[in-house]
Amino acid sequence: MAQKVAIIGAGVSGLASLKCCLDEGLEPTCFERSDGIGGLWQFKEIPEEGRTNVYSSVITNTSKEMTSFSDFPFPEGCPNYLHHSVVMEYLRMYAEHFQLLDYIHLKTTVCSIQKHPDFTATGQWVVCTEKDGRRESAVFDAVMVCSGRYAEMNLPLDSFPGIKKFKGRYLHSWEYRDQTGFDGKRVLVVGAGNTGGDIATELSRTTAKVFLSTRSGTWVLSRISDAGWPFDMVITNRFGNSIQKLLPEGMARRVLEKIFGRWFNHENYGLIPLKRYCYELNCISWIPLILNDELPSRILCGSIVVKPNVKEFGEASAIFTDGTVEKDIDVVIFATGYAPSFPFLEESLRSVCRSNMSLYKQIFPPHLEKPTLAIIGLIAVAGSIMPAVELQARWVTRVFNGSSKLPAMSQQMSEIAKQKKALHKQ
To answer: Which of 75, 115, 204, 253 lies at a 20 to 30 A Cα distance from 86?
Structure first.
């Protein structure tokens, strides 16, 4: 009898997990609390509480060649970089092609995941769900949590003194959809990640002025490489990765800084990263790095002004850490990111899963007697998430069906400790 696997979420990670379960002879059931598949790629005009999704103008930062699942390429007619609607259509096609929709329960919220009373012997889980006000429980042999890294808004208002007395409007980028309602205003965008850069660039076309506040700077790269190829196809490859591993850390850092600074002098634009990060190419996800083809031009034209971190807010002003003040601020948009959340897990598991660095291979909680719970997609990668979660799901499903084995708990804990030590050193 096939093992029953519960999959939480029908986004990119959930769909890949469904496919891999079927490939490995497992019996999956996927629970998705929204009314459709696709996760954050499912665009909604009105933001839904407790759900993250893309804003209107989002285009992928990875090319279709580097983004697709291994066994399902994007149609040839798709552009190299993809509007979110194209990604959503691709995911629908993927789900239909591999007949995944029959295993997905929409509008179904997972309330709790508890160890079965016989967990030590069986590794089973009791999954409680709710749909249309009715609760049900079922026993599963394994669980794949695919709710992603972007479950809750990170809005650290306590880090910004005076924000409560600010009389203008302030919002998290979660609420942002498009330029509507911002015409002619003076807008401060806090956070220079991909989202902050995109929003600042888009708003600079119609606002009176946009201020982009960055705490530590960032490298800004174009989607187009020197030869006209998509940037990720040029920089993300096994050869470059191997060369970087052979170089001393200082030399590797200088090589990447030269590559990242080739387009323009970041120091002149107020964007040069202030901190030292792990600059090995296989750790590129730790580098403050965004893709934005317009941001340098908008800064050069004066429609965007780069500022350091906000020290304090006034009723209509912002004071920055360099002592400068910008007055008559109408709107503040906090592009301060998101955090994972697992409210349905037991507290002991919740605390472990808050950080992927506490998980074995950033997937398995190491202290469980049976390796029957896996967190898929809780990773930062140097490229598209799709191939990465597909590899995770392949391995996990093979662990579940017994064709792959995990090392002893002590060995898992030792490897996790080494990773944490290396991270602190970096």
So the answer is: 204
Neighbouring-strand partners of residue 128: 112, 137
Same domain, 289 and 382: no
Distance CA 143, CA 127 (A): 9
For CA atoms 186, 190, 193, 196, the dihedral sign is negative
What's the average model confidence in pLDDT over 162-167?
96
Does the structure show a pLDDT above 70 at 275? no
Region of 344 please: left (phi>0), alpha (psi -120 to 50) or beta: alpha
The type of residue at 289 is L
Question: Phi, psi at residue 135, to the nearest 5°?
Answer: -100, 145
Residue among 218, 216, 235 nearest 281 (CA): 235
User: How confident is the model at residue 234, as a pLDDT?
Assistant: 85
Q: Tell whether the torsion through CA atoms of 168, 172, 175 and 180 is positive or negative.
A: positive
- 11-15, 316-320, 323-327, 352-356: which range is least confident on average? 352-356
The verdict on 139 and 195 lying in the same domain is no
Report helix, strand or coil for 310. strand
Count of structural domains within the chain: 2
CA neighbor of 203 nearest in space, from 82, 300, 270, 303: 303
Alpha-carbon span 350 to 231, nearest angstrom: 37
**Is residue 115 classed as helix, strand or coil in its secondary structure?**
strand
* 330 and 363 part of one domain: no
- Are 377 and 12 within 8 A, CB to CB? yes
Phi/psi of residue 166, each to 5°?
-65, 125
Query: 97-125: per-residue pLDDT in tens?
Result: 999 999 999 999 999 999 999 999 999 99
Task: Specify whether 17 is located in the same domain as 40.
Answer: yes
Amino acid identity, residue 386? M
* 414: containing domain: 4-151+340-425
Last residue of a domain, one of 271, 303, 334: 334
**CATH code of the domain containing 192:** 3.50.50.60
Q: How far is CA 222 from the centre of its chain?
A: 20
Quick one: DSSP state of residue 407? P
Please indicate, yes or no, whether residues 257 and 372 belong to a single structural domain of this protein. no
Count of positions (residues) in the chain: 426
pLDDT digit string (tens) for 31-86? Answer: 999 999 999 999 999 888 778 889 999 999 999 999 999 999 999 999 999 999 99
Give the separation between CA 366 and CA 356, rounded to whole angstroms: 11
CB neighbourhood size of 253 (10 A):
18
